[in-house]
Amino acid sequence: MLKTLSKWWYQHFPDQIVGELLQKQWMENAVTTLVLVLTIVLFNQFINNFSSFSNISDTLREASELGFVVLGMSVVLIVGGIDLSVGSMFAITNLIMLYCVQVLALPVPIAVLLTALAGALLGVINGLLIGYLRMRAFLTTMVTLIVYRAISDLLSYQWAVPISSSTASSDMWDFVGSGSLARIPLVVVVFALICVASHVFLTRLRPGWHVMAVGGSRRSSYNLGLRVNRVVAASYCASGFFTAIGAVFYAARLGSPGADTGRGMEVIVLTAAILGGIRLGGGKGSVTKVVLGTLIVFLVTNGLLRLAVPAGASRVILAGILLLAATIDIRWYKNRHKAIQEFYVSPSYLALPPAPPTAADSRSPYALNDNLRRVEVIGLGVVESPEDVILDDDDNLYCGSRHGEIIRFFAPDYKRTEVYAHIGGQPLGLAFDAKRNLYVCVGGMGLYKVTRDRVVEKVTDETNRSMFSIIDDSRLKLADDLDIAPDGRIFFSEATVRYEMHEWPTDALEGRGNGRIICYDPRTRETTTVLRNLVFPNGIALASDKQSILFAESWACTIKRYWFDGPKRGKVETVIASLPGYPDNINRASDGNYWLALLGMRTPSFDLAMRKPGFRRRMSKQLPGDEWLYPNINTGCIVKFSERGEVLTTLWDLGGVNHPMITSIPEHRGYLYIGGISNNRIGRYKLEGADPNFVASAIYHE
Fold first, then answer.
1. DSSP letter for each residue of 303-350
2. Which of 189, 205, 501, 617 is 20 to 30 Å from the Cα of 520, by its Cα?
3. Among 553-562, 625-634, 645-654, the least confident range
């Protein structure tokens, strides 16, 4: 009973979902969005008409004015600085806008332009001091806060009376202050458009990438050739500009100066930016965070005001929110990777059948021998990581290398080589189609094609996304092996959708059905997933009926068969239920049977660990990756089997002298060619009694 419950719990309880959620970029906004919703619900209970249309309209109007300032502050924070002078700049530009319109009677567009230029100029002063003279941002903007506030007081003393006594007005001025477009306040529309433009700037344009890069690491950005000083100075200029735009709408709405305009605004703006998720250390932030943080802080301040909370208490509450947000910001970004690691790796319960015996004196078909000791070595030291090998009609040999290249060895002696094509990534499975185009599964990139003219083309790097998948499983992470049906359809395996190629030990540790088999149809150019929840699916071979494929599940140590056509279409049957090792590529043999590569051997300790998910979870949390219990991949083996699952021949290389890890074994004109992703050579093994005219790549397209 306990074993059954444990198996059910670890196979079906979706604890890995927590880790997958934490990895999503939008999760960074999830907490802030939740806080916003709770804030709205809370104040809606205590304030009458809080959710009325008129109140929402007024709230959005005033929040947008604040949002411009928060947006400017956020740009500075992203670049790794801080601007404490925004409140004073807001006060100055508010006075300039009022004076231009109500005293000088300038046209509104000209007044807006002059005010924006004034705000940008105030920001440039900060930028020059901090960006080019390399003064401390905190101290510098604290000083300019005082200086700008003094200038604001002087201007207010000179201009307050003329502004207040002026009766100048215009329809455009009134429209800027209280106008609407389709019942949406003008300021909200303008703020939304600027937010969209800012989002495009930060995420799609090179200058925005420079801002992110400088904020992430100024030293690295400088070493890359970025003009760090210019980027920093420009960010402060943007802060002044956005602050001035907010002041324009504020001035148009109120129409008169105030003695306390902008006072304490730096605390509100900082709180909004940090609460929204703009990182204090720089290099992290988004426009969505700006909007969320602005709404939360404005709703809190406005709600406290409507609840008649004293001004001093409101400031204390805002300061407490700022302190809490800063603490969460520092602690979260420091421990986020640890939290993801804590939840993301989720071992499952995997009970393998008993491993068949392999002792030399046993009567097992897997009995140990040393037949592979007499393997001829090809390309020793010339190639690295030949995971799969294949031969063409002219007996030339092709293989991938870890440098992202397809290497061609020329027949008959395979001494002369060339780079047949450079693809990138790690080339894995190889297959020729009927037109002798070479298809390649590339780890981390997808399925590619090398034409007969040696032109590299991407075939597909995505498939249909699962309906209930949290991670984006439409992108191909580890396309592994492939085979081609007579009608041109390409079936290929993707070993795991959760991990990258170099993270295969973690997938082995999980023992979960993270893999799938995918079909690409060149006639429709559609890519679809045909089988899911497979335990590291690896080798694929077209069966003799040409209506089904054989495929290997490495960590499950099984060979299965899937019918993609015919009366059994859609069915899956087990061909070999338990192997002594971990199966990899499958290749057709000249006598109608199949060759199978075992990349490593099972061990009692790892088999036991697969039935102990809790043990593996603790191991992944408490030990570094290089101290985990790994599958044994130090002894390679080759197995010949029939479609009925009968094991006919076993070839061993005891001690792994020639081929410690075997991942590929195509037969060609009486020889087996042996590849291994951990090897620096290719082996050739003479098969007694094999058909000397058999060419594997031709039999699939008869």
1. HHHHTT--HHHHHHHHHHHHHHHHHHHHHHHHHHHHHHHHHH------
2. 501
3. 625-634
On whether the CB atoms of residues 296 and 272 are closer than 8 A, the answer is yes
Contact assessment for residue 666 and residue 387, using Cβ atoms and an 8 Å cutoff: no
The tokens of 25 are what?
């970029």
Is the bond leading into 412 cis (omega within 30 degrees of zero)? yes
Cα dist from 662 to 301, 372, 541, 655, 684, whole Å = 67, 11, 17, 13, 12
Between CA 283 and CA 290, with CA 285 as vertex, the angle to 5 degrees is: 150
Q: What pLDDT, on the 0 to 100 scale, is given for residue 338?
A: 65
d(Cα 28, Cα 23) in Å, to the nearest integer?
9
**CATH H-level superfamily of 371-464+472-699:** TolB, C-terminal domain (2.120.10.30)
Q: Computed over its alpha carbons, how large is the radius of gyration of the chain? A: 34
Pairing of strands 594-601, 637-641: antiparallel
At residue 327, does pLDDT exceed 90? no
* Element housing 418 (H / E): strand 417-422
Question: Domain locations in the chain?
Answer: 14-341, 371-464+472-699
Fold (CATH) for 14-341: ABC transporter involved in vitamin B12 uptake, BtuC (1.10.3470)
Q: Which backbone phi and psi does 232 adopt, to 5 degrees? A: -65, -45
Between 700 and 608, residue with greater pLDDT: 608
Beta-strand pair 537-542/548-553: antiparallel
Contact between residue 73 and residue 273 where contact means Cβ atoms under 8 Å apart: yes
Residue 613 has pLDDT above 60, yes or no: yes
Question: pTM for the whole thing?
Answer: 0.73
Q: Coil, strand, or helix at residue 647? A: strand
- 3-class secondary structure, 85: coil
Task: From residue 308, give the alpha-carbon distance in Å to each of 55, 254, 451.
Answer: 17, 22, 75
DSSP per residue, 95-136: HHHHHHHHTS---HHHHHHHHHHHHHHHHHHHHIIIIIS---
Round to whole Å and give the CA distance between 360 and 696. Answer: 32
357-366 average pLDDT score: 90
What separation, in Å, do the N-terminal and C-terminal C-alpha atoms of the chain show?
53
User: Which of 533, 585, 580, 582 is CA-nearest to residue 556?
Assistant: 582
3-state secondary structure of 503: helix
Residue type present at position 86: V
In sequence order, the 6+-apart residues with CB closer than 8 A to the CB of 378 are 397, 409, 414, 673, 681, 682, 683, 684
Residue corresponding to tokens 């290719």 = 682
Give me the count of residues in the chain.
702
- Supply 230's token pair: 């210019």
Residue 586 · residue 540 · CB < 8 Å: yes
Calpha distance 652→655 (Å, rounded): 9
